[in-house]
């Protein structure tokens, strides 16, 4: 306890410094006080992780201070395009309802499209990796259509689908499905034949070979596909929202830009970054759970 | 001692017949003959060892017996029926342990039971097999956490759980240190005596062949032909110092073309 206290003591001045600095710059006070409150809360719950984080928090404080300095204080950057941090906080407080709505709409669209795409991609990948006939029919289609960016379908999709929501789901699913299909397929096709030999001599059925040998062995590849698909799906999500769907963070971004509300734009961007990185983290967690057996085999 | 008793009720082992089995691979368009008209008759519950130089085709022959490949010519039969596909009554311990890296040792050993839907009823066997190969403490370890010898023992356990009628062993003890190896050889013999399966063992080790098998088949260089057959009817457990054992060993070395050493 004492050790922890003394260990985090040196962190104090730097946070304090950020605090007093923020206080001195009156308009920055709100933002920094908020930040400090969050820091303090973190500090009481988990000293240890805070210690590990403190270099980063320090850097963040520096960044905020520098931002504050060049925007609000020195006015080095043209104002409407580069608002000071407190403006973003203001937006977050004033317009939180609309922002939350946007996050919710985006998340719903993304989740539906992503899961649909990942599921279809996974099944297709296993099918072409396993069955020659499925490979014969699906492979050329995949070759031809796959490399096309999903956004190229955008005009057609908004025209063909009954609603822009379903069109966007289709596009996101497409963007997700392609890498998942290809990587699942290569994963299944790359399973060592010795694995099958073992199972076959032990009396495995085809079903067992697919579900208990091919799929688990291909899982590391599948996850690479899932990560790539997630990245693709973000891109398509934003484009789809900007061009078709009248909701979500992408649309909010577009709308804010239209009104030259740059602070709102930054707020939306920030939220989007949180959403995306949060989802990536979630996928990492899932991988860590499912592929923990890999820990000693590859650099984790 | 108990050998005689075990032999008598050797009902569960299956017979194996090889009729003029030849096999050829294609190596970059060139035919590569690997097996040359091998004929062999293995009786119920017999322990036969195959001895031959590296690359002569021993593993290939075992794959044919397992039903993983079909020979280019000739026929393989078990219990009078042609071997067409793998069957859990013929279990192979491959040269390479090939455990599934995503399964723990326990569930690797459980593989055969799971594949046949016997896991619920025969669960206890997994513990027994792990104990037999000395891996009880490693049931929850992943294969990459095992040494090469331990992995090989796990592979042996994975085969033994299935209570095979014909156990096909491809240098199963190759990576073990000499002490563990001796212990495992003794285990194999007592297991074979208790369970009375038929065993077909490939090995490089002349002494191992003589310690375990009732009959040692010597194969020639590739393409493998049967060069000689040495019968060893000594009772178990056998001792390396026994004059008859030494004489048989000399004979085998001679067949392998290593007589200068003796
Ligand atoms: N799938 C294959 N395709 C082509 N050639 C093969 C194949 N499998 C084995 N061979 C060849 O067949 C020959 C016999 O191989 P095999 O593995 O049966 O030898 P082995 O007697 O088991 O040798 P070792 O004692 O070293 O394990 C080798 O020359 C090898 O190159
Ligand atoms: Mg071999």
Sketch the topology of chain A as an H/E string, one letter per element. Answer: HHHHHHHHHHHHH
Q: Give the quaternary arrangement of the chains.
A: heterodimer
Strand adjacency order, main sheet of chain B: 6-7-8-3-9-10
* CATH homology superfamily name of chain B: P-loop containing nucleotide triphosphate hydrolases
CATH homologous superfamily classification of the largest domain in chain A: MetI-like
**Mean pLDDT figure of chain B:** 87
Which two chains form the greatest contact, residue counts included? Answer: A-B, 23 and 28 residues
Structural class of chain B: alpha/beta
**DSSP helix fraction of chain B:** 25-40%
- Count the E strands of chain B: 10
Transmembrane segments (chain A): 23-45, 57-76, 109-129, 141-161, 167-188, 209-239, 259-284
Membrane topology (chain A): Multi-pass membrane protein
Family (chain A): Belongs to the binding-protein-dependent transport system permease family.
Subcellular location (chain A): Cell membrane
Description:
The complex is a heterodimer of chains A (300) and B (262). By secondary structure, chain A is an all-alpha fold. Chain A contains 13 helices and no strands. Chain A has two domains: 76 residues, no CATH class; 203 residues, MetI-like (MetI-like fold, Orthogonal Bundle). The longest helix of chain A has 38 residues. In chain B, strand 1 and strand 2 form a beta hairpin. Chain B starts with a helix and ends in a 7-residue tail after the last helix. At the A-B interface, helix 10 and helix 11 of A face strand 6 and helix 4 of B. The site of magnesium ion (MG) has 4 residues of chain B, from helix 2. Chain A: Pfam families: BPD_transp_1. Chain A: It is a multi-pass membrane protein. Chain A: It is found in: Cell membrane. Chain A: This is ABC transporter permease subunit.
């Amino acid at each position: 306890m004492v050790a922890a206290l003394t260990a985090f003591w040196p962190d104090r001045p730097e946070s304090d410094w950020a605090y007093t600095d923020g206080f001195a710059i009156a308009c920055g006070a709100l933002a920094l006080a908020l930040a400090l409150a969050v820091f303090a809360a973190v500090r009481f719950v988990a000293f240890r992780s805070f210690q590990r984080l403190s270099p980063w928090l320090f850097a963040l404080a520096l960044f905020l201070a520098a931002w504050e300095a060049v925007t609000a204080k020195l006015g080095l950057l043209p104002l409407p395009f580069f608002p000071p941090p407190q403006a973003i906080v203001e937006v977050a407080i004033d317009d939180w309802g609309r922002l939350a709505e946007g996050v919710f709409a985006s998340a719903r669209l993304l989740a539906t499209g992503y899961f649909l795409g990942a599921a279809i991609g996974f099944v297709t990948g296993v099918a072409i990796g396993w069955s020659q006939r499925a490979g014969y029919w699906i492979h050329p289609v995949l070759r031809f259509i796959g490399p096309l960016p999903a956004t190229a379908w955008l005009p057609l999709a908004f025209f063909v689908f009954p609603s822009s929501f379903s069109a966007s789901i289709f596009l996101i699913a497409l963007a997700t499905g392609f890498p998942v299909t290809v990587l699942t397929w290569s994963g299944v096709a790359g399973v060592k034949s010795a694995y099958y030999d073992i199972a076959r001599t032990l009396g495995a059925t085809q079903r067992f070979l697919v579900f208990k040998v091919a799929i688990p062995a291909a899982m590391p590849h599948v996850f690479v596909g899932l990560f790539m698909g997630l990245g693709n799906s973000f891109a398509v999500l934003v484009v789809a929202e900007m061009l078709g769907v009248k909701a979500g963070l992408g649309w909010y971004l577009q709308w804010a830009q239209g009104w030259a509300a740059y602070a709102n734009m930054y707020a939306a961007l920030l939220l989007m970054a949180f959403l995306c990185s949060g989802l990536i983290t979630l996928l990492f967690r899932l991988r860590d759970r499912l592929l923990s057996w890999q820990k000693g085999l590859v650099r984790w | 001692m108990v050998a005689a008793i075990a032999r008598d009720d050797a009902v569960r082992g299956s017979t194996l017949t090889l009729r003029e089995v030849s096999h050829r691979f294609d190596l970059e368009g060139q035919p590569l003959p690997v097996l040359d008209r091998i004929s062999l008759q293995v009786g119920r519950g017999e322990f036969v060892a195959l001895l031959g130089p590296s690359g002569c085709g021993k593993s290939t022959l075992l794959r044919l017996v397992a039903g993983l490949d079909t020979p280019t010519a000739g026929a393989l039969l078990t219990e009078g029926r042609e071997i067409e596909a793998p069957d859990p009554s013929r279990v192979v311990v491959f040269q390479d342990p090939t455990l599934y890296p995503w399964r723990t040792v326990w569930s690797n050993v459980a593989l055969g039971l799971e594949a046949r839907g016997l896991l619920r009823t025969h669960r206890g066997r997994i513990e027994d097999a792990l104990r037999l190969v000395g891996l009880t403490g490693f049931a929850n370890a992943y294969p990459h956490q095992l040494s090469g010898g331990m992995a090989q023992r796990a592979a042996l356990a994975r085969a033994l759980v299935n209570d095979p009628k014909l156990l096909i062993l491809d240098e199963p003890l190759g990576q073990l240190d000499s002490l563990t190896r001796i212990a495992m050889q003794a285990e194999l013999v007592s297991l074979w005596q208790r369970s009375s399966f038929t065993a077909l063992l490939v090995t490089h080790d002349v002494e191992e062949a003589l310690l375990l098998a009732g009959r040692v088949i010597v194969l020639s260089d590739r393409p493998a032909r049967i060069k000689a057959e040495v019968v060893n009817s000594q009772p178990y457990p056998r001792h390396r110092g026994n004059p008859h054992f030494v004489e048989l060993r000399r004979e085998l070395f001679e067949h392998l073309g290593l007589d200068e050493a003796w």
